[in-house]
């Protein structure tokens, strides 16, 4: 199993200062020696505080960029760079399956608090949007069009979950209700969505098949 903190583990076991500047700074910090890099000290402080560590790793796992973290958590990009290198390098995961396996193992082995485990679930299930809402201090605003599209998608997928059940079952009735609600949501989305290219070409085609009234009048043709 790949571990995103494998760099930290390697520095802990190192008997000599590593060559990499971040790793060397951490090596000295772990031995209570002068670090010389405030960003390393800041990153180590976050990592050493369980509450802060669980929040930060959830943001990184959700795919937050340095700009996102600076905006919502007010952690400078330089600190995020150090933290990602030393303590939580999500690039270590080979694919999504590898990432999800790590989360499952983290939960099964109870490596963190219930709060931290829930944050990881939010990170992999709802993504960055959920974390922005939780930690945004009411500053995160959702686009109304996005709400309609997400509601439509969610309702439609919930309706599929009822397939395979008996037509008279409660599950089938719930699936039908979700399907009808998804249809209504789709109609709302369709009313406000920008016309697609095909619709535009259709309008253009029919426009070319007609003549303005002024041009027709000049030919002395009867207009009615």
Choose one word for the global shape: elongated
SSE order in H/E notation?
HHHHHHHHHHHHH
Number of strands: 0
Q: In percent, how much strand structure appears in the residues?
A: under 5%
State Rg. Answer: 28 Å
- What is the count of helical runs? 13
Main sheet makeup = none
Distance between the termini: 80 Å
Number of individual domains: 2
Mean pLDDT: 85
Structural class: mainly alpha
Unreliable stretches: none
- The percent range for helix content is 55-70%
Describe the protein in words.
With 224 residues, this protein is an all-alpha fold. 67% of the residues lie in helices and 0% in strands. It has helices at 6-13, 21-30, 38-48, 50-61, 66-73, 77-86, 96-108, 114-125, 128-135, 144-160, 170-192, 197-208, 213-218. The chain is elongated and about 70 Å long. The model has no long low-confidence stretch (mean pLDDT 85).
Key structural traits:
single chain; mainly alpha; 0% strand
Question: Layout of SSEs?
Answer:
Blueprint (H helix, E strand, L loop, with lengths): L5 H8 L7 H10 L7 H11 L1 H12 L4 H8 L3 H10 L9 H13 L5 H12 L2 H8 L8 H17 L9 H23 L4 H12 L4 H6 L6
What's this entry about, in short?
The chain folds into 2 domains: 6-135, no CATH class; 144-195. It is elongated, with a radius of gyration of 28 Å. Helices cover 67% and strands 0% of the residues.
């Amino acid at each position: 199993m790949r571990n995103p903190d494998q760099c930290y583990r390697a520095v802990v076991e190192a008997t000599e200062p590593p060559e990499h500047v971040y790793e060397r700074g951490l090596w000295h910090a772990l031995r209570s020696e002068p670090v010389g890099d405030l960003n390393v000290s800041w990153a180590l402080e976050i990592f050493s505080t369980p509450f802060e560590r669980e929040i930060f790793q959830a943001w990184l796992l959700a795919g937050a960029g340095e700009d996102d973290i600076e905006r919502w958590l007010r952690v400078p990009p330089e600190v995020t760079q150090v933290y990602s290198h030393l303590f939580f390098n999500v690039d270590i995961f080979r694919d999504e399956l590898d990432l999800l396996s790590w989360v499952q193992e983290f939960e099964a082995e109870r490596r963190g608090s219930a709060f931290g485990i829930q944050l990881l679930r939010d990170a992999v299930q709802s993504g960055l949007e959920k974390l922005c809402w939780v930690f945004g201090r009411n500053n995160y605003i959702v686009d109304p069009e996005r709400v309609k599209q997400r509601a439509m998608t969610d309702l439609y997928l919930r309706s599929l979950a009822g397939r395979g059940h008996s037509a008279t079952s409660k599950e089938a009735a719930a699936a039908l209700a979700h399907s009808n609600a998804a249809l209504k949501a789709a109609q709302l989305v369709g009313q406000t969505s920008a016309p697609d290219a095909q619709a535009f070409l259709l309008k253009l085609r029919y426009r070319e098949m007609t003549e303005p009234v002024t041009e027709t009048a000049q030919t002395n043709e009867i207009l009615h």
